Amino acid sequence: QVHLLESGGGLVQPGGSLRLSCVASRSIFSINAMGWYRQAPGKERELVAAIASGGMTNYADSVKGRFTISRDRAKNTVDLQMNSLEPEDTAVYYCNAHHLSINYWGSGTLVTVSS
Q: Is residue 93 a contact partner of residue 49, using CB atoms and an 8 Å limit?
């Protein structure tokens, strides 16, 4: 069992920045892959960014160059730095852990980009 807890969501204006964090109940460096997903009303949940245990990352085309996923060994967190935010980024963001063919999910944190 892997428990995940997200934080950092909130309201931000277009062009602004926000940093999301996800803390796990076991070492993130021992988990096969960690990632951030998002879901807007009426839309399917989509991958935003992911990082494998070896450090390889991948991003959705819509966020490349704006978002950065990283790991903090001291805090045991997976972070998502979001810059140049757009209204289209508005969604509930979920932390995901994929380990031994099982997906674990956090409860989500709401990000609203609006003037």
A: no
- pLDDT digit string, tens, across residues 61-110: 999 999 999 999 999 999 999 999 999 999 999 999 999 999 999 999 99
The DSSP letter of residue 27 is -
The DSSP result for 32-67, as a single string, is SEEEEEEE-TTS--EEEEEEETTS-EEE-GGGTTTE
Facing residues of 95 across strands? Answer: 36
Residue with tokens 């709401």: 110
DSSP structure class, residue 3: -
3-state secondary structure string across 69-101: EEEECCCCEEEEEECCCCHHHCEEEEEEEEECC
Phi-psi map region of 42: left, alpha, beta (phi>0 left; psi -120 to 50 alpha): left
Report helix, strand or coil for 96: strand
CB atoms within 10 A of CB 22: 26
